[in-house]
Amino acid sequence: MTAPPSICVEGEALIAGAPLFAHVRLDVRAGQWTSLLGASGAGKSTLLRLIAGLDTGVEFRGSITASDGRPLAGRVAYMAQSDLLAPWLDVVGNVVLGARLRGEKADIDRAMELIERAGLAGHARQRPHTLSGGQRQRASLARTLMEDRPVVLLDEPFSALDARTRAEMQELAGEMLAGRTVLLVTHEPGEAARLSHQALLISAGGLRPLPLPDSVPVRAFDDAATLDAQARMFRLLREAA
Amino acid sequence: MRALMTVLRIAAVFAFATGLWQVIVWLTQVPHFILPGPGRVARQLWESRALIAENAQVTFLQIIVGLLLGTLLGVATAIQLAMSNVSRVLMRPVLIFAQAVPVFAIAPILTLWLGYGPASKIVMVVLIIYFPVASAFFDGLSRTPQGHLDLAHVMGASGLRQLLHLRIPHALPSLASGLRLAAVASPFGAVIGEWVGSSQGLGHLMLLSSGRAQTDMMFACLFVLALFTVLLYFLIDKLGVMVVSRYAEPGA
Fold first, then answer.
1. pLDDT: is B88 or A28 the higher one?
2. Which residue of B has its CA nearest to A146?
């Protein structure tokens, strides 16, 4: 993996001529977690998809640049709310899907190591429907890591999980994705408070920073400063709506 | 145990249907050249077994070859449609129009072009199943969940590999349901083809018996044809269930 760049998105987005969000400048810092919060439809997923180079259905006027000046295509890994596991492939097959789709030789040893680190040792040859929701999202995380990209885009990856599994996955992802440039789209202040170096709130008016503790993520879910930040974020989120 | 239950159930249904048939024959007192009873048909089936088998073999072979060719052609068309916008714009209306033309109506033309041999019947079968196979598979190919396509895009997949590793596997259950339709429709093609013009096959034998008022023989042929169709359907249905359990999310 090359040194992770920072990413700057600057511009405005329009849906059928009407602004989705006004002129914004989003700085996703190199090697850090940036969380993006906001009401449904505020454009947080749109920003993420713009960076990923995916269809958004909006007209974006502006620029998306990496700090090293090179294009982002091929340097991004993507993880969504749905685990997007192929039902006909076992866990290993799903983890090495990227290599197969690019016509590269899959590094099975590395895949097995990542599967083990993701806590799925012994499940490598199972197909997705035999796994629990949490295990499936672990496989999805292993697949994301297998891509070994400096930039990782997470679109509400844990929101379909139960509270306990979600907390476990946050810790696992925080640990396994450390050092990469991560953009996390979430609607959960608690998640942002635990995982981010920087948290931002998006609304029609633009972006604004949200309060975070000074400590280094991943923060404990019951840490007083984290809980306080979570409460303050929640207040700002309700005011923005 | 389950296999035994299935056999018993089939036997019960068969006994019921045969019994009903016999009762109708007794009650209505119709002459046997209008509606023969099951006994007469069974006797005919046994006495003419060599003749029926010889002709059935021809028909079955036509159906199977037509089914294979039609499936290949349908699959190829669906992939072609899924891959190219141009062919989608040009080909789809043609396909739909071709389907609107009743295949029975063009049987005489096919016989004129391809003769009385098996070729015209095979083409009939191909024409009948081509559209359901192509449209079911194309439907599946165009309904790959967007999330999976997004992921493939971010992963840097080429269009061809995306088709091979993602879209085709996702579409296999749809192809299976198209093939189920094809299995039931394919015997029509062969028999209609034989009615229009042939020198052998079950359709030919039925036409011949009809001219000689050998209703027993017509029913015997019909029975063999129906049995074959049911077997073909079961086989393809089993295959479909296997494909679905492998390629689709259970419960989805």
1. A28
2. B155
pLDDT in tens, B39-67: 999 999 999 999 999 999 999 999 999 99
Identify all chain A residues contacting B166, using CB atoms and an 8 Å cutoff: 86, 101
Do B153 and A53 make contact, defined as CB atoms within 8 angstroms? Answer: yes
Angle of the A108-117 helix axis to the A133-146 helix axis, nearest 10: 140
What is A7-75+151-240's CATH number, 3.40.50.300, 3.20.70.20, 3.40.640.10, 3.30.420.10?
3.40.50.300
Q: What is the pLDDT of residues A106-147, one digit of tens each?
A: 999 999 999 999 999 999 999 999 999 999 999 999 999 999
Q: What is the 3-state secondary structure (H, E, C) of B54-96?
A: HHHHHHHHHHHHHHHHHHHHHHHHHHHHHHCHHHHHHHHHHHH
Domain of residue B188, residue span: 48-247
Which of B 159-178 lie inside 8 A of A, CB atoms?
Answer: 161-162, 165-166, 169
Residues in chain B: 252
pLDDT tens column, A25-36: 999 999 999 999
pTM as predicted = 0.86
Torsional sign, CA A122, A124, A125, A128:
positive
Q: Mind telling me how many Å the CA of A98 is from chain B's nearest CA?
A: 6
Q: Please tell me whether residue A9 adopts helix, strand or coil conformation.
A: strand
Q: What residues in A contact B162, CB-CB < 8 Å?
A: 101
CB pairs under 8 A between A and B: 64
